[in-house]
Design a protein that fits this description.
The protein is α/β, with parallel strands linked by helices. The protein has two domains: 9-165, Rossmann fold; 172-288, N-(1-d-carboxylethyl)-l-norvaline Dehydrogenase, domain 2, CATH 1.10.1040.10. The chain has helices at residues 16-27, 43-47, 56-62, 73-86, 101-112, 127-131, 143-156, 168-196, 201-210, 217-227, 236-252, 258-272, 283-288, and strands at 9-12, 32-35, 51-52, 65-68, 92-95, 117-124, 136-140, 159-164. It has an eight-stranded mixed beta sheet, with helices on both faces. The longest helix has 29 residues, at 168-196.
Length: 292
């Protein structure tokens, strides 16, 4: 291989997050081949100079490092079964999917039988933040495997944590998402009260940011709530899935989560109101309109 050439990276799942990952890789001049069961998702990949694979098998034949960005770890398990059938020893799978720690461990075990490396590299941050290189990666996996892929991961973000063995990335992502989701709901409720009581919303947001009430949700979702711009950066229904996994992890560890229980009900109201495909900031509409 020429010194200046970079290895082809495969990306399976080219939705909101997967597209942003592809963008980061192309910005770093990596050849990228992508596959998605929804062909319309691949238009953006072609636009930024990526190649479209017709199947998992074709993608695996061209890429020794494969990133996954899928709806949940059940889908990851299914895709990894396909990868195991056609990948050669030494192939590396890096899964950014938000799923269960147990699924991550099982996938790693199954792929390991074929000498395929696996890491769960979950991401905190919206697709737009990841596109800007501002996502936070939490990687679970063997230390040596992590070190081997660190240069690649640094093309995606400068904030990367190796948080333990396989499954640790998935576990910590659920903990992070618990906090992020509640921060977002608190912001939505605060702005709803501000609007109902006649406070100017931009002023309310500005003051909230300047006080101990501040959270990063105010930077990423405050204006979207005020403008009622719910074009998706991360879909509300996906966060409802995350809350289900969060509560499942809590039940396994006999930990009560009363705030997350309430949050789940609010998200259910939003989905029943037809807001599931919108950005997760659309929870503001539920609270502002007293739908709950």
């Amino acid at each position: 291989m020429n010194k200046k050439e970079k290895q082809t990276i495969g990306v399976i799942g080219v939705g909101l997050l997967g597209s942003s990952i592809c963008f980061r890789l192309r910005e770093a001049d990596y050849p990228v081949i992508g596959f998605d069961s929804r062909s319309e998702q691949l238009d953006y990949l072609v636009h930024i100079g990526g190649q479209v694979g017709s199947s998992v098998k074709e993608l695996v034949s061209q890429a020794k490092v494969i990133l996954l960005s899928l709806p949940d770890s059940t889908v990851s398990s299914s895709v990894c079964e396909q990868i195991a059938k056609c990948a050669t020893a030494g192939t590396v799978v890096i899964d950014t999917t938000t799923g269960t720690p147990d699924d991550a461990v099982e996938i790693a075990t199954n792929l390991g039988r074929q000498k395929i490396q696996f890491m769960d590299a979950t991401v905190a941050g919206s697709s737009s933040q990841v596109k800007a290189g501002e996502g936070v990666f939490m990687v679970g996996g063997d230390t040596e495997h992590f070190q081997q892929q660190q240069a690649l991961l640094k093309q995606l973000s400068n904030v990367i944590f190796h948080v333990g063995p396989v499954g640790s990335g998935a576990r910590l992502k659920l903990i992070v998402n618990l906090a992020i989701g509640l921060h977002r709901a608190v912001l939505a409720e605060s702005l709803a009260l501000a609007e109902a009581s006649g406070v100017d919303l931009p002023t309310a947001l500005q003051v909230l940011k300047a006080t101990p009430a501040y959270s990063a949700a105010m930077d990423t979702k405050g204006e979207k709530m005020i403008q009622q711009d719910f074009s998706p950066q991360a879909r509300l229904r996906q966060h409802r899935k995350d809350v289900r996994l969060i509560r499942q992890l809590a039940a396994q560890n006999e930990q009560s989560l009363p705030l997350s229980d309430i949050h789940a009900k609010l998200l259910d109201v939003a989905i029943n109101a037809g807001l599931g495909e919108l950005d997760n900031s659309a929870i503001y509409q539920v609270l502002r309109d007293n739908l709950s």
